[in-house]
Amino acid sequence: MGDCRRVGVAVDFSPCSRQTLKWALDHLLRDGDHLILVTVRPDAGKMQLWETTGSPLIPLCELTDLIIMKKYEVDVDLETLDMVSTASRQKEITVIMKTFWGDPREKLCESIDAIPLDCLVVGNRGLGKVKRAIMGSVSNYVVNNAPCPVTVVKSQD
User: Fold this and answer.
1) DSSP annotation string for 61-72
2) What is the pTM of this model?
3) Are β-strands 58-59 and 94-101 bridged in parallel, bridged antiparallel, or unpaired?
4) Least packed by Cβ within 10 Å: which of 14, 22, 27, 102?
5) For residue 126, what pLDDT is reported?
6) How far apart (Å, rounded) are the C-alpha atoms in residues 124 and 105?
7) Cα torsion 1, 115, 142, 75: sign
8) In this predicted model, what pLDDT tens digit does every residue of 37-87 receive, in sequence order?
9) Beta bridge partners of 8
10) Residues 124, 17: Cα–Cα separation, whole Å
11) What is the pLDDT of residue 137?
12) What's the pLDDT at 35?
């Protein structure tokens, strides 16, 4: 991927995830960068082939192909596709996606070396103290365990 930066953005295609992606596009990505959308599915299920390595890198042109996305068990929403397509044209960035299966905390950290990424942007769902104690915070785990800079974008409800 040459001298360009490889910026990862964790996406699950939720409103919080779109907000995180928008922040990264507006404030972090520069002309010529590579934007890697990193998504984590909770269970490998029938994806045992890619359970440890994640999917192959999926280029932007294939993200709109429903057959290909079904193969990776990913439901890409139109708003996210529009955001990355527009940014790809305007900023001349390369957009690709990689899907992992398993625990989002662990897989996001693993993605940094597997892709590899220069930095990672994650969202913060804004869990309260009790829910965070019970469920755990993905963003907190990634910040404390990732081998690269991590930016947490706080959700604005």
Assistant:
1) HHHT-HHHHHHT
2) 0.89
3) antiparallel
4) 27
5) 56
6) 13
7) positive
8) 999 987 756 566 677 788 899 999 998 888 888 888 888 889 999 999 999
9) 36, 120
10) 9
11) 83
12) 98
Is residue 93 within 8 Å of residue 32, measured between CB atoms? yes
Residue 100 has pLDDT above 70, yes or no: yes
3-state helix, strand, coil split of the chain in percent (to 5) is 40, 20, 35
Amino acid code (one letter) for 137: S
Neighbour-count burial of 78, counting CB atoms closer than 10 A to its CB (0-12 exposed, 13-18 middle, 19+ buried): exposed
Contact 84, 95 (CB under 8 A): yes
Residues 6+ apart with CB under 8 A from 119: 5, 7, 8, 28, 148, 149, 150, 151
d(CA 18, CA 99): 17
List b or e across 18-28, with b for residues whose CB sees 16 or more CB atoms inside 10 angstroms. Answer: bbbbbbbbeeb
Given a cut of 90, is residue 136 above it in pLDDT?
A: no
